[in-house]
Amino acid sequence: VNFRDDDAIAAFRTEFRAWLAEHAPADPEPLGGSARAEYWARWHRALYEGGWMGLSWPVAVGGRGLTPVYEAVFNDEIGAAGAPPAPHVGFLGRALLHFGTDEQQREHLPSLLSGEQVWCQGFSEPGAGSDLAGIATRATPDADGWRVSGQKIWTSDAAWADRCLLLARTDPDAPKHRGISALIVDMHQDAIEVRPIVQINGDTEFNEVFFDGALVAPGCVIGRPGQGWEIAMTTVGYERGPADVGFSSRYARALRTLEHGARARSVSDVEAIRLARAYVQVEVLRAHVLRSLTARLHGGAPGSEGSIDKLLSSTTEQVLGHAVRDADPRVLLGDDPAALAEYLYSRAATIAGGSAQIQRTIVAERLLGLPRAPS
Amino acid sequence: VHVALTEEQAMLVATVHDMVAGAGVVNPRAGDAVDTDIALWDALVDAGFVGMRTDGVSAVEVALVAEELARGACAVPFVGTAIADELFRAADAPPSHSSALLVSGDLLTISGDGVAWDAPAPQSIAVGLDADRVVVGESGELLDAVDLTRRVCGEARGDEPVGAPLTRAQAARAHAFALALLAADLVGSMHGALDAAVAHDKERVQFGRPVGSFQAVQHLGADALVLVESARSVMWHAAWAVDELDAADALLAARVAKAYCAEAAPRVCETAIQMWGGIGMTWECRAHLFLRRALLSRQVLGDEHVQLAAIAEARLGAGVA
C-alpha cells in the first residue's frame, strides 16, 4: 500500500500544475447551448495540444502509454486548479481500443483524443433503459453497408457530435444479448435527426436521436456482428470509473469552490460540518479510485468492482450537490443559477450510466455472490 | 502510487486469517463477555505480530492485522496494546507488549485518568497521556461494557510518567496511529458482520427461494459492501499516512478515515442484523458481537461528529464561527 507519487508521477504532477496555471481558462463555463460546446471544445483542444489527453492510452493511437494512475493525478490537478473538468472522451474510445481493428483505431482514436471529432454514445432507447439489451433499433445489411432505423435517447453531445458509437440489433432472431452489434455511425447525414431534451436544470446536454435509414459503411462494425453486448459492457465499465470520465476532477473542483467560499466569510458550525462531510467523501473517493486504478494495472478492463466505484462516485456527487445547494439560501432565490443547476444535475448521478439500482444488483450478484433474482 | 497489498502484506493477512479461523471464536453464554483468547494471543505474540512497530514495521501492517482480528471478532487486546506500544515508542521507552489504552471517562481522548480500554485483564497495565507525558498505571475492575470481545476496566489512573515528553508532532502522529487502527478495527467488524449475513441469506429460503435473491435484500448487502470497500480504501490511506506524511496531514488523513468508518461500521452491522432477520436478534447469532465491537471502536477517541468538527477546523480554520 503506497499512496506516494514516485519520481515520474511527481514530475508529471509538477509539470501539469504549471501548465494549468498558464492555460486553464479564467472565464466561467457558459450555461448550456452551443456556447458551452465551443467552450468545451477549446478546453479539450488546449489539453490535447499540451499533451495531456489519453495519458493511459497506447502511444500508437496518440496516447502517452502511462499507467492508469496518471488519470487520477490528471483529475486531481484539474480539480485543485479549479479548471474545467476533464473531457469525458475516454470511455468511448475504449471500445475501439479493446475490440477495434488496427485500421479503425488509426482512423478514429487520434481524432477522438484531440477533440477534432466529437463522439456520442447511442446506447439507451425509450424502451431500453436499465434493460439495455432490449434495444429495438435495427441495423440491416444492404448493398452500401448497413441501414439503421430506430431511436436513441439520453444521448449526451449528440447535437454537435461527429460520430456515434451505436448499439443496434443486427440479428432479431438471436437471444436478446447476442443479436446486438456495435457500429460507428457518421452523425452528419440527413437520415439522422437530433432533438435536444430540456433537463430539470434547464440545460440541454441530453438529446433524442432518430435514425431513419441512416447509412453505416461496411468497415464500421466494431468487433464481430453480435458482439455488441460484450463491447457495450466493456465501455460502460470504463464509464463507471470516476477518473475515466473526469468526474473526479469535477468533484475536486466543486469542493475547492465550496471551501474557498467558506474561508472568505464566517460560516456557521452547521455549514462547516457539511463541508467537512463533503471533504471526507471526496477523500474517500480519491483513495478508492487510486486503489481501483492500481488493480487495473494487473487486471485489464474494469470488471464488476466498477459498480462499487460508480455507487461511491454517485454518492459523492450528491453529497456535493447538497452542499452546493445549501451553501447559501439565496441560491433558492435565483442568486446563483449555476449552483442550483449543479445541484439539480447531481440527481442524474444515480440514474445515468446504469442506475444505482442496477449497480446494486451487480454488486449483490457478482461481488457478494447472492443468488440471482428470477427474471 | 501502488494502492494494493504487497505480496508480503497479502501473506500477512492470509496468515492472520488462518490463525483466526483456527481459533474458532465462540459466542459467550448469555450475558457474559468472551474470555480473552489466550491461545490466539500467544500465537500472535509468537508470530511476532504483537509489538511489530519495534521492529520497524509500518502502520499499514499493524492495521491489516487489526482488521483481520476484528473480522473474526477475536477476543484479543491487539489494538489497545498496539496504541500503548506506539506511545512508549514515541516517548523512547521500552514497550510492554500487553497493556490497555487509558482514555478519559467519555472515551474521547487518550488520558491520564479514566478507563482502560482493550484491557488484557482486570487490573492490567494501562498506558495514557498526561499533557505531554506518557503515563502508566493500573486499572480497576471490569466494566459491563457493550463490547463482548474486548474488555474495558474502570478507575484507571496513570501515575507514573515514562520516557521523554512528547513533542506536539509526536503526539499528533501517535494520535493518527491510534485513529487509523480504530478505523481498521471498524473495517474488520463491518466486513465480518456482512460476510456472515450474506452467507445466511444465500441459504435461508422463504417464498420458495433464497432470501438473498430478493432485490430488497440484495440492495441492503450491496450498499453495505460499498461502505466496507470504500472504508477499507480510506483506512489504507490513513494507515499509510502515519509513517509517510507530516504529522498534521497524517492526523487529518486519520480523522477522515475515522469519521467515515465510525459512521459506516454501525450502519453496516445494523444492516447485517436486518439481513439475518429474527435470528439476528438472538444472543446466539454472532451479528451482535460485531455491532457491539463497532460501537466502542466508533466512540473511542471520537465518533464521526467529533472528527468532522476537527476536520472543519483543520480545513476552514478561523472561518468557522
Description:
The complex is a heterodimer of chains A (375) and B (321). Chain A is 46% helix and 13% strand. With 375 residues, chain A is an alpha+beta fold. Chain B has 321 residues and is α+β, with helices and mostly antiparallel strands. A five-stranded mixed beta barrel of chain B has the order 1-2-5-4-3. Chain B has a two-stranded antiparallel ribbon with strand order 6-7. Chain B is globular and about 65 Å long. Chains A and B meet through helix 3, helix 7, helix 8, helix 9 and helix 11 of A and helix 5, strand 7, helix 6, helix 7 and helix 9 of B.
SSE class of chain A: alpha+beta
Low-confidence stretches of chain B: none
Identify the overall geometry of chain A. Answer: globular
Alpha-beta content class of chain B: alpha+beta
Number of helices of chain B: 9
Mean pLDDT of chain A: 92
Strand order of the largest sheet of chain B: 1-2-5-4-3
The average pLDDT value of chain B, as a whole number, equals 94
Strand order of the largest sheet of chain A: 1-4-5-8
Number of strands of chain A: 8
Strand content of chain B: 5-15%
Order of helices and strands of chain A: HHHHHEEEEEEEEHHHHHH
Q: What Rg of chain B, in angstroms, do the CA atoms define?
A: 19 Å
End-to-end CA span of chain B: 38 Å
| Uncertain ranges of chain A | none
